Amino acid sequence: MILVDMFDMAGWWTLIVSLQVIIISAYYFWSKKKSKDDDPLSKGVPTNWKPLPIVEYDVAVEEPPLMGKIDENVLNVGATSFLCLHKEESIMNGALKALDKYGVGSCGPRGFYGTIDVHLDLEERLAKFLEVDETCVYSYGFSTIASAIPSYAKRRDIVFADECVWFAIQKGLDASRSTVRYFKHNNADDLENMLAEALSKKELNPRRRAFLVIESIYYNTGEMCPLKRLVQLARQYKLRILLDESLTIGVVGKYGRGITELLDIPRGEIDLIVGSLEHSFATVGGFCAGTNFIVEHQRLSGLGYCFSASLPPMLTQAAINALDIIEERPNIIEELNIVSKKLNGALSKLKYFRFRGDEISPIKHIYLNKEDLTDRLKHSYLRNIANYCLEKGVALAVAAYLRDVEVNCPEPSIRLAASRKLTDENISLICSLLDEAYEKVGPKPELQAI
Amino acid sequence: MAAAVANGCVDTSVVNSRNKEECNGKEKKLLNGKINNHRNGYLNSKNTSNGVNKSRLDEEGPRIIPKMDWSEYDTMRGSFEKCSLLTAVLTNLGLYILMFLGFVNQILFKPNVATEKNREGYAPLYDPFEQFFSRYVYRRVKHCFNRPICSAPGAEVILKERCSDDHNWTFRFTGSKRRCINLGSYNYLGFAEGEGGSTHADVAAATRHFGLAMCSSRAELGDTALHRELEHTTAKFLGVESAIVVGMGFATNTLALPGLLGPGALALSDANNHASLILGLRLARATVRVFRHNDVRHLEQLARAALAEGKWRKIVIVVEGVYSMEGSICPLAALVALKKRLGLQLYLDEAHSIGALGPRGRGVTDYAGVDPNDVDVLMGTFTKSFGAAGGYIAGSARLTAWVRAQGHAHTYAHAMAPAVAQQIVCAMRALDAPAGRARIAALRDNTHYFRNRLREMGVVTFGHHDSPVVPMLVYTFSKMAATVERLTDSGIAAVGVGFPATPLNQARIRFCLCASHSRAQLDACLAGVRRAAAELGLRYSRRA
């Protein structure tokens, strides 16, 4: 009896399976045949399609001012060398010595004979300085965070990010293809609402990786994030934190170890710290810092790390020497913080401008106090002001944005970078020049904002 | 027909490739100061369009476009000798055994580094297979990668020896150093010299003059006379109107492509394109269709199908000049002809070919005898031939203005370091002097010599005869590691590449030749390779 039943069962199943096989294979053969011969162009069906050239129309590019060495003949408050390490003779000598030994380029990615002993040295020193397990050095500041994010966040994951994150982070989020939710700038309550909603909708669940991407001091606003509250939220909702500390390492904290030192947050609470060597270290490159478990992964899957030539050895050596100076003389951090605070006091007295920026932040954004102008006009107005100031010997940077590509394009502003050696006279000169320039120049509408 | 047998495929392209060898390969003539050994018609090809006389796209109204006649062009894909079935089966079997052992290993031993602290209840950070692969398969050969050096990556390199006490989980330095002949770095023309480098004085002067870095983006306060000079020199070197430079080669692709393409653009991308191109296309949100590596017929088929759809704003072919993992050269003349007939655009990544190919070192355009102005976007890097870092986008003045305004690098990424910029300017100038041209000739000589000897040895090499990247196939993962170990023992630094950079069963050793390798050095390398090949049985080639 059982055998008969089994035969019946098997018979049915065989029939169904074989029918499926026949249908699928028929479909497969049929579609394949069609796609092979399917070339309407040669069958005589004419085409109407006209290609567009790769550049569809001419664009005007704003000519940036031509500079020499930072701060040589002018007072440069646009370049982000906060600690003035570009002036240190010891760094220059160290770099030139490395030039003699190693040449300029490293001629290979880290995996293929592009790892030079100075890279390992720098990684070890940075890890020791930041009190983390491990760091890995990238060869370009922009690519650091833009590669770090997609090596962890993947297509099915969810990322919560501040709406004012700088462009490299936005590109990193694009590359990760994750679901991205932007919360209001520095607004932890908004984030909490978002998280609660996501939790109730089961968008946050234990199988889906969730990340929080923030900057310690925002490049686009100069404001510091409420890290304590964010860490608390991240722990509550089980988010991993990727923190961009480009503007805080070597800038805040007693020894310049960044925001975690300043706010006394255990470094283990932050999953990945991303820093830049292009600001306070005054060289080129960036790095990621964290536990072995986190950072090791980058060495195999950080695209900008694996597939790009490593940082030129002489620039790596410059970063090592800069770190020497920061470790030897922690008082330069204090000097910088004093200047940043002074700058806040002076900028608040400006007649025609508003400004944004934390007291301790070395970056301040100065906005026009005119609400009736469009963003493009504001930009050209600011550009004219910057040109006027440059003639008078002060170089200011009008923050450059790609207006159409930014997720949430910031208002046009002049980005002021504090540096350790700014004197009181310098600060008052900047302020008086800004007000003077505002009165002297007006916006030119024909200038296109970039 | 010697060339035909050597290349391993007998088809119509043979005639063309032989012609090319005759025209391009007269090495000694290069030194008399005359540039007379590139293809006829190159210099006055400004207005001719490589065989296609008039684009049919100029006509108004519907039109019929005939298929390409590929017999006119050199469309050789490169030599890709297939391995025998036995090798393929054994390679796969070996991999499964490796995986199985890794799996057993994973069950039995849980290492400390694999556990995360204070993150209980979080979703696992990594994909389990990725983790498994990197810990239990990749770790076994980890010592072959990321090897630290402590000298300039010149013709010879000094390796810092290291060893592992815990099966490659961690390494420690033994303190000893080993001098090796460098076949691993992309130093094609030998500009990556250490002590006594020809360009160091100028680089040092520029560093003193402009500082180590600009700490600002080009659009803000990072623009110097040196950067403009570099762009001007690059454009002149390439024979196009204008160029823009970026501080990192990888970032050149990832930051420029999103500005150039957008939604509604179709990218026809070669199957073996570099990660930076793939990432750039992804960031650009362009639709990507992949054609078989160097296969113009497949490309034509895809392009015609796309054309018939009629919905794309623009169709861009994205290819590389020399493919770094395959050692093959793109059939540029054929691509240009195709693009002209169908009205497509061409984005050419010359990361490995600029400086290294062509009688004047102008890259694959020079090599194929194509007017550089026929290529819409020329991209390349300075990392390889020029011994520096960074990359460029070159083409018409409209193009570079567009890339400046819409690409991301000019606005956001910090300016290139002055030292790097000066190195490139010096290297480009040096290439136009007789000594520089001798470097290019020496590289070609070395390439031919090395490739010929390897072929005689009976190992399988991929790619074109003229490409300075020489991949030697060893197929299995473990043979790759064993070969690298043996080569190091005989004083040769070469690169082993395996999954995920190549398909699972096509692990290979990659040699990159350099103009400053002497014959004696190459002979020493070949002897080392011969020993390793005899010991490990690498003579897979079945060609007579």
Describe this structure in words.
The complex is a heterodimer of chains A (450) and B (544). Helix content of chain A is 44%, strand content 12%. Chain A contains 15 helices and 13 strands. The longest helix of chain A is centred in the first third of the chain and has 36 residues, at 2-37. Chain A is globular and about 100 Å long. In chain A, β5, α8 (227-237) and β6 (240-244) form a beta-alpha-beta unit. Chain A has helices at 2-37, 89-102, 110-114, 117-130, 141-152, 167-176, 188-200, 227-237, 259-262, 292-301, 303-306, 313-328, 331-347, 375-391, 424-440; strands spanning 75-76, 134-138, 158-162, 179-183, 210-215, 240-244, 272-276, 286-290, 353-356, 363-368, 394-395, 397-398, 414-417. Chain A has a seven-stranded mixed beta sheet with strand order 2-8-7-6-5-3-4, sandwiched between helices. Chain A has a four-stranded antiparallel beta sheet with strand order 9-10-13-12. Chain A is of the alpha/beta class and 450 residues long. The model of chain A has no long low-confidence stretch (mean pLDDT 88). Chain B contains 17 helices and 13 strands. Chain B has helices at residues 2-7, 13-24, 85-108, 128-137, 200-210, 225-238, 249-260, 275-284, 296-309, 332-342, 364-368, 397-406, 409-412, 418-431, 434-457, 477-489, 519-536, and strands at 156-163, 172-182, 242-246, 265-270, 287-291, 314-320, 345-349, 377-381, 391-395, 469-475, 492-493, 495-497, 507-512. In chain B, α15 packs parallel to α17 (519-536). Chain B starts with a helix and ends in an 8-residue tail after the last helix. The chains are: A alpha/beta (450), B alpha/beta (544). At the A-B interface, α2, α3, α4, α5 and α6 of A face α5, α7, α8, α9 and β6 of B.
